[in-house]
Write a structure and sequence with these properties.
This protein is of the alpha/beta class. The chain has helices at about 30-40, 55-65, 80-90, 105-115, 140-145, 145-165, 170-175, 190-200, 210-220, 270-285, 300-305; strands at about 5-10, 15, 25-30, 45-50, 75, 100, 120, 175-185, 225-230, 235-245, 250-260, 285-290, 310-315, 320-325, 335-340. The protein contains 11 helices and 15 strands. Helix 3 (about 80-90) packs across helix 4. The protein is elongated. Keywords: Plasmid.
């Protein structure tokens, strides 16, 4: 069962009673606000896919006091399936992690036909959405409670980048980014498990680990579990990276390397890996990494290759990469990197 990351709502006769273009005084349907708040507190995002006049619908959401809950709302006259896809792309999550709520069977069928992975829900069942098993992440962490605000800050960054005049590196430099790398503490483990479960595109092996497994690695003398965080002038991104290293006498092996999809465009994907290369070189050991290809994590393979890793052996679906440590990378000049022991 896939945990839903975002619920995409129709508006007319779903979020509110009636059709906005026929009645400008439409009111919220009973229970909708409670559902929005409950899921938001669990770290589940909300968006909109509505056939409507954009300005009128956006103004009504503001008037009703719920506009802040909806990220990247798609309000247009196009197909709902296109709008649902646009939401997934804007948030940068898999479309199989979306749910779609609509009062019209035709609209639900159109979305289901195009995107069978999307969980389609009748608006009549909206009040029962929080009870669905897909709406219950195993943990609710500090990062998950703040997820909507983190994504809103991302939207502000993206808007600033869109109007920025100059190179991409100039823009990154203007963000005053601060990247932290710390050994995982017990308080980090819920978020660490959440990262392994939620992150698909930027997970080098696709492995998922439970809280208990991560805690065992954290306390193991033969392993190193690292957590990465990021902040900039717009605020914090939260905990956005995780690395698990198995430390042998002669060689270290990166068993898990992942980064949150929210930081793909920030040029930070290689920072945690660069740290591991530097640490291995200082310790005088070889550095290997496991990579398991999935249908989504090609970018992580490219990250390894650009960092200087070369494939040495293949064991079934697992490729073993190795770095010769001849060239130890520098951290990007446009961010401050703090490493805590």
């Amino acid at each position: 069962m896939t945990t839903v990351k975002c619920v995409v709502w129709d508006l007319d006769n779903t979020v509110w009673d009636g059709i906005l273009l026929e009645d400008g005084d439409v009111q919220l349907r009973p229970g909708v606000v409670d559902v929005l708040k409950t899921l938001d507190e669990r770290g589940i995002l909300h968006s909109v896919a509505s056939r409507n006049d954009h300005d009128a619908a956006a103004a009504k959401l503001e008037e009703l006091g719920i506009a802040e809950y909806f990220l990247y709302p798609q309000i247009n006259w196009g197909n709902k399936s296109d709008s649902v896809k646009a939401v997934a792309e804007a948030i940068n999550i898999g479309i199989d992690t979306l749910a779609f709520v609509d009062d019209q069977p035709f609209e639900r069928d159109e979305v289901h036909f195009t995107h069978p992975q999307v969980l389609c829900i009748d608006a009549l069942d909206a009040e029962r959405i929080p009870d669905l098993p897909e709406m219950h992440p195993r943990f609710v962490t500090t990062d998950s409670r703040e997820r909507r605000h983190l994504y809103r800050a991302d939207a502000e960054r993206n808007q600033a980048e869109a109007v920025h005049e100059g190179t991409a590196e100039d823009f990154l430099g203007s963000l005053n980014m601060r990247f932290t790398i710390t050994p995982a503490q017990e308080r980090d483990l819920q978020r660490a498990e959440e990262l392994t479960v939620r992150t698909n595109q930027l997970n080098a092996t696709g492995y998922t680990y439970s809280y208990e497994e991560l805690d065992a690695f954290r306390q193991s003398p033969d392993h190193h579990l690292l957590v990465a965080g990021l902040e900039d002038r717009y605020g914090t991104y939260g905990k956005i990276g995780l690395a698990l290293v198995e430390r042998g006498e002669d060689a270290w092996t990166v068993k898990l390397l992942l980064m949150s999809c929210r930081v793909m465009s920030r040029g930070v994907g290689s920072v945690l890996l660069a740290h591991l290369i530097r640490e291995a070189a200082a310790a005088g050991v070889r550095l290997r990494a496991e990579f398991v290809p999935t249908n989504r994590n090609r970018s992580m393979y490219v990250t390894y290759k650009f960092a200087g890793f070369r494939e040495t052996t293949t064991n079934g679906e697992i490729s073993v990469l190795e770095h010769d440590l001849a060239r130890v990378p520098e951290f990007p000049p446009y961010m401050e990197v703090l490493v805590e022991s």
